[in-house]
Write a structure and sequence with these properties.
The chain is an alpha+beta fold and about 200 residues long. The chain has six helices and three strands. The two termini are about 25 Å apart.
């Protein structure tokens, strides 16, 4: 997982000495509440005489970091290490944000999984190659057989938790090549759409 340099630089650049632990705690909780859909907006006015844009920048950066770490299922140890070592934030304020991350982790994950129409998304791929030497149905071998397992994760509205499934299929070398070409075509099409907008 890689956090965009823009947000990492933003967190380093902010005047952390002007943010009290209470402000960091309040902003962290509000970021998590916003990510989980508990609140709609946060009022940045009247926050201990701090400049509004500083609070807004901190809020945006923290929201991004909370979402990315939860999306990649990173531990609270990784979270505090990122804040203290890579962003050079003092340990007290990092600990407050990390405690909030621990409390809201599963709720943020569910909210992120709830985006869209609950289609499963691929989280991992396992594969192996088999070669059929002799079979009572084949007179000659047509090459290797690829056994592929796509691990997927999908939000279940009834249980309000994410469910994991593995989709297994086998294919020949030619069928696998066709699949790869089609996937590359989809990626090119998506990239083209994103550059047009």
């Amino acid at each position: 997982m890689e956090i965009k340099e823009h947000f990492k630089g933003l967190l380093k650049m902010l005047p952390w000495d002007r943010f009290s632990t209470d402000i960091v705690k309040s902003l962290s909780e509000n970021c998590c509440d916003r990510l989980t859909g508990k609140i709609e907006n946060y009022d940045f006015r009247d926050t201990e005489n701090l400049k509004g844009y500083e609070i807004e920048l901190l809020y945006a950066a923290l929201s991004y970091v909370f979402a990315e770490f939860a999306r990649h299922e990173r531990s609270s140890q990784d979270f505090i290490q990122f804040l203290t070592q890579e962003c050079e934030i003092d340990e007290g304020k990092s600990k407050v944000a990390t405690e909030c991350y621990e409390r809201y982790f599963s709720q943020i994950r569910l909210a992120l999984l709830n985006i869209g129409n609950h289609l499963p998304h691929v989280t991992d791929v396992k594969w192996k190659i088999d070669y059929i030497i002799k079979s009572n149905t084949y007179e000659h071998s047509s090459g290797p057989v690829f056994r592929i397992g796509l691990k997927t994760e999908q939000y279940n509205e009834e249980t309000e938790h994410s469910g994991r499934k593995v989709l297994h299929f086998t294919c020949t070398s030619q069928e696998l090549q066709d699949l790869v070409y089609k996937l590359k075509d989809v990626v090119r099409h998506c990239q083209k759409l994103s550059t047009e907008h």
